[in-house]
Amino acid sequence: MSKLEKKFPEGFLWGGAVAANQCEGAYNEDGKGLSTQDIAPRGITGPITEEPTEDNMKLIGIDFYHRYKEDIKLFAEMGFKVFRTSIAWSRIFPNGDDAEPNEKGLKFYDDLFDECLKHGIEPLITISHYETPLALSKNYDGWVNRKLVGFYENYVRTIFGRYKDKVKYWLTFNEINSVLHAPYMSGGIFTDKEKLTKQDLYQAIHHELVASALAVKIGHEMMPDAKIGCMILGVPNYPLTPHPSDVLEAMRQDREILYFADVQVRGAYPKYMNRYFKENNIKIHMEPGDEEVLKNTVDFISFSYYMSSCATADPEKKKAGSGAGNIISGVSNPYLEASEWGWQIDPQGLRYILNLFYDRYQKPLFIVENGLGAVDELVTDEKGNKTVIDDYRIKYLNDHLVQVAEAIKDGVEVMGYTTWGCIDLVSATTAELKKRYGFIYVDRNDDGTGTLGRYRKKSFYWYKNIIATNGEALQ
């Protein structure tokens, strides 16, 4: 591929992504209420505690709450056009159902967005990113309860009214389909996953889909020039073999993901869900007007992509070949290598899923999470500067971006690309800091030690060059 062929569209939104609960810290400062994350010290891999415990890395995170100016300056040095983060719902409404918002929380995001804009960086804001106010989870069982639609609507109207002149790009829910696999983290559902019925789970999903459509409707009314997207956890499924049963199983697993996008992009439930609901005795209760609300469809589709998976109908092969993954996992692909955390590395899968989404929806696409979690070693270079020689991360990102360029050549409309964890942060799934993604090393360790100092990795300068050349420097 020549340099010219790797040219990305003019105005392509290069940047990076984080989430409030994984980087901000300050979990109990300036009127913030507790969120579901504050009592989950092991992420989705461990127990829920009664109260926040000192071993929960997210309570301090990387102290972005106090250091955001320093960090945004580093993002600007790389040339970011966009920065994706989230608003902590419980920083605005500490209990979720409060009559009035917390002014200190609102002011923090005013300051944060102003800092981004000062450096020419557009904020891309996730409204709800894996951190339901804990009171809504405990008192209402999260999104199982219809009342959360109203609480979310009140929250949305508040932040849209406050930030309408500062934020052009919004996402309604992070990885909305992950609620199927992580109902507490994704949907704030306090009922134990093993005891949660499919009826309640899919009713909760309906409430989220209605709330997402309401956010689109309200956003278009309050901010006519804003773009509001959905956000999907993207894991394409390949048949493990050409056996028709494996092909059909891959189709079934793909539909677990596509169902959420179908509703948010097409504005109605897809017909294939009728059979699933019937066979599982699920009856979605719709309030009057829900079907009309769902017709408020998103302006673009954003998604995360870290890995692909294989699907098989053979229970023995399924058991023998199970692999690790980003909340969703499947059967390992014998043709792919894996990261230190067992996530299979498949750059071509990104081209595949871009084409899959675009063929299906013909809507602009935005890759808002992609990256490599790895154990990084902080070293001192020949100039005496602390850094990380992360050639493995550069290769991972380079290979994926080459496939984005291929998808663009295929005719796919791609708005932008934000790497996940552009600065080291606390892992969502395991609540570790040793699983690092960033271009910027943060001196904090899983035992709580460290200065919280920031250091540019080798990949920092690599990504700066990729942005400066609009992708032409890709290999």
TrEMBL record:
Which terms are listed as keywords in the entry?
A: Glycosidase, Hydrolase
Q: What is the superkingdom listed in this entry's lineage?
A: Bacteria
- Example of a GO MF term: hydrolase activity, acting on glycosyl bonds
Active-site residues annotated for this sequence: E369
On whether Transport is a keyword of this UniProt record, the answer is no
**Entries under Pfam families matching the protein:** Glyco_hydro_1
EC number(s) stated in the UniProt entry for this protein? 3.2.1.-
EC primary class: hydrolase
Keyword Plastid listed: no
> Cross-referenced PANTHER family, in alphabetical order?
6-PHOSPHO-BETA-GLUCOSIDASE ASCB-RELATED (PTHR10353:SF122), GLYCOSYL HYDROLASE (PTHR10353)
Q: Which family does it belong to?
A: Belongs to the glycosyl hydrolase 1 family.
Tell me the protein's name: Glycoside hydrolase family 1 protein
Q: Which organism is it from?
A: Clostridium tanneri
